[in-house]
Amino acid sequence: MSAEMQVFLLPDLGEGLTEAELVNWLVAVGDEIRVDQPIAEVETAKSMVEVPSPYAGIVAVLHGEAGQTLDVGKPLISVAPVGASLAAKPEAVEEKVPEAPAASSAAESYRTEEKAGSGNVLIGYGTSGGGEARRTRPRKTSAGSAVAVTSEPDFAELSLSRTRIPGKLSAVISPLVRKMARDHGVSLDAVPGSGESGLILRRDIEAAIGGTTREAAPVEAPAVVQSSTGVQDARTGLTVASRTPVRGIRKAVAANMTRSRSEIPEATVWVDVDATALLEMRAELKKRDPHGAPGLLAFIARFVTAGLKKFPELNTRFVTAEDAAGGEMQEIIAFDGINLGFAAQTDRGLVVPSVRNAHLLNARELDTEIRRLTAVARDGKATPTELASGTFTLNNYGVFGVDGSAAIINYPEVAMLGVGRIIDKPWVVDGQLAVRKVTELTLAFDHRVCDGETAAGFLRYVADAIENPGTVLVDL
């Protein structure tokens, strides 16, 4: 190990995120740490994650406090060699980040994949560049321990060799990819990197473990609310009770919904549906297999994927780009497959995990994956790929006891199907009035990608499938 101080910069935690909130430190100044040991819990707009250290040694500096928002590419932790004295001159500790010229190709590989939207890279990369930052003064933490603080350095000149294990180029990988490998008992020495210069990517680990992942135990995020200080609101004349910073998932939801409303000219169609036959079919399946019968949402998800095959315009994306002449060009991008997102309410806000390649799964398989994704989303452990790869969203707001909703489309998708509560209603069956189990389906769609006929056709297909599930499932 080098005798110089090593600085670990906060890596990109996925999908081009630029910041993360430091929830909790898992180490303290003076602790001896090992490679891949979790050092901090951070919350991004997508998920809560533990960040492991790419270095072994003694914790010299913690760059930030719990509750602080840190920028990607800025120092997170500084690690000194084992045996180094930290208490002698904390005000004069010098740290240098060694150059990593061989990692520049790995960085380019990361950027290329991210721009292409492959979803294969989760976080982190190395780049070339040199520079150093010097510590100028100590400060005290709330616990009273001395922590050295940097003056404002030129971070543009700091090397971003934040995840490279010295001496092994094939291990130039993100901390979370290494954590995934560790959690599943995958030896990195046995994993061939598919990235440039042997860079190990998330897809390589998934291939090694058969494409399945399990997440760590949930971590509760502390509530960040500033209590009233007696300040009076100028507009209402009332005392301000509290101020809650908008950050993390709530900040991402706000930005996404605002963009959807401002950019998408949406329209809505809806229909009441007799779901009696579907409920009876599921009740019969539950009698035969009390623990293995798929839930209602899984059946509706199956009908949705079948409907999207017939009306693929609703499984697209509308994009505006610059053409070769520098002018504006608009395109509708169609996909060879369906990633079905579904809205899940969590303690951290509303998130939309997606079932990848949902069109290849039957109702039982969809039910299993929906349950798995719901669990990891509520634990705050869903990956950026699981939360940002949907092509169409299914929203079961009926669980909240409402019949309908003027839903906002989950940008950048072009449509969302909402399902209301199922209740007893009077319904005409074969000319006779009867009490039936009725729900309301609502489809919000981007009018730029299709007209009302397509939207109505899709909605009617799903409605007919719910009313006659046996007939439809035979043909699927």
Question: What can you tell me about this protein's structure?
Answer:
With 476 residues, this protein is of the alpha+beta class. It folds into two domains: 6-208, RNA polymerase II/Efflux pump adaptor protein, barrel-sandwich hybrid domain (OB fold (Dihydrolipoamide Acetyltransferase, E2P), Beta Barrel), CATH 2.40.50.100; 250-475, Chloramphenicol acetyltransferase-like domain (Chloramphenicol Acetyltransferase, 2-Layer Sandwich), CATH 3.30.559. It has ten helices and 24 strands. It has helices spanning 104-116, 175-183, 202-208, 248-263, 276-288, 296-310, 363-378, 384-387, 452-467, 469-475; strands at residues 6-9, 19-25, 32-33, 38-43, 48-52, 57-62, 69-71, 75-80, 94-96, 132-140, 146-150, 226-227, 242-243, 266-274, 316-322, 328-334, 340-342, 344-346, 349-351, 354-355, 392-395, 415-419, 423-429, 432-446. The strands form seven sheets. Strands 14, 17, 20, 21, 22, 23 and 24 form a seven-stranded mixed β-sheet that branches. The chain has a four-stranded antiparallel β-sheet with strand order 1-8-6-3, with no helix packed on it. Helix 6 packs across helix 7 (363-378) and helix 6 packs antiparallel against helix 9. The radius of gyration is 26 Å and the shape is globular. The model is unreliable at 88-173 and 211-224 (pLDDT under 50). Keywords: Acyltransferase, Lipoyl, Transferase. It comes from Arthrobacter ramosus. Residues 172-209 form the Peripheral subunit-binding (PSBD) domain. Its cofactor is (R)-lipoate. This is Dihydrolipoamide acetyltransferase component of pyruvate dehydrogenase complex.
